[in-house]
Amino acid sequence: MANPTVLTENPSTREREKGSDFSELSRRITEAGLLRRRPLYYTVRFASVALALGASAAAFLALGDDWSQLIVAAALAVVFGQLGLAAHDLAHRQVFSRRRPSEIGGLLVANLLLGMSYGWWMNKHTRHHANPNHEGKDPDVAPDILVWSRRQARKAEGIPRFIGKHQAALFFPLLTLEGLNLSLSSFKALRSPSMKRPFLEGALLVAHFVLYFGGLFAVLSPGKALAFIAVHQGLFGIYLGSVFAPNHKGMPMIEEGTRLDFLRRQVLTSRNVRGGALIDAFMGGLNYQIEHHLFPSMPTPALGKAQVITERYCAELGIPYHQTGLLASHREALRHLRSVGEPLREAR
């Protein structure tokens, strides 16, 4: 590729006709037993998150109107990040094979506990999985606040044009608002025709914020409550961004008209993050982003073994397979953000 950040040329006819490439990988993954449900794993994991949430609530009530509550706010940001990862796994039916229990669990975790619309997020995330890093089709690379390609930068107006000039430097500060952005977008989405249960989702969202704000202002003075919200929501947003940004940001973008088969579309636009058990827990298995995109319903504990099979298979086919460390992944993402914002910095 002339430009490694953009996939513009059609692959060869031979590559387009390789409809069996993914089928062969799927066969190997299935024979290894990696698509089997892992109920014990999810029972322990969800119970641990529930225990951490309960402990945070108990500490909050015990400390009362004290500035030490900011420590609880920081801990709760991590708990909320883990709740987000739990909702993600429920949405992909990694936990339950049937739609009904997955949806019930998703509504309770996302709407009630997290304050984010399960239906809105699932619709958005499904479109992302179908066309990762595809301009015009992937909502995660839409030029909303940031720009993700030089093409978007040249067309940017208003806020994206202003922020895009220095978006690499502003990326992490902007992430502090991501938790609030998810909640605001969730309420806006209740009016969308695509929402299947707007009244139920709206009621659960309202219940979440009544409990959240009601509890804060009942126990804390207004100043401490606002500080708690700032620390909690700010760190929560940074946590989410640190989990999701390394997955695709800085990987090749796909322009309209580019044809790629499923295997190549998912592998070429995704990045894995190395780091062992600690990174696995921090990122909830999303550090195996390539395997997750190829097999979205694969339970988290199976992704590590799937990674070995997938990397070897891509080597057999000569498909580039990219993985790096967590800090290096962020450097690549920030370098990409700075690069695509260059046309805006050059404009007078």
Total helices: the number is 18
Helix share bin: 55-70%
Order of helices and strands: EHHHHHHHHHHHHEHEHHHEHH
General form: globular
Radius of gyration: 21 Å
> End-to-end span in angstroms?
31 Å
Structural class by helix and strand composition: mainly alpha
Question: Beta-strand percentage?
Answer: under 5%
Write a compact overview of the structure shown.
By secondary structure, the protein is mostly helical. The chain has helices at residues 13-16, 20-31, 39-63, 69-91, 99-114, 118-130, 150-155, 158-164, 167-175, 178-189, 198-219, 222-248, 262-268, 277-283, 289-294, 303-317, 326-340, 342-346, and strands at residues 6-7, 253-254, 272-273, 323-324.
Q: What does this protein structure show overall?
A:
Mean pLDDT is 92; it is low at 9-18. The protein has helices at 13-16, 20-31, 39-63, 69-91, 99-114, 118-130, 150-155, 158-164, 167-175, 178-189, 198-219, 222-248, 262-268, 277-283, 289-294, 303-317, 326-340, 342-346; strands at 6-7, 253-254, 272-273, 323-324. It contains 18 helices and 4 strands. A two-stranded parallel sheet has the order 1-2. Helix content is 66%, strand content 2%. It is globular, with a radius of gyration of 21 Å. By secondary structure, it is mainly α. The longest helix is centred in the last third of the chain and has 27 residues, at 222-248.
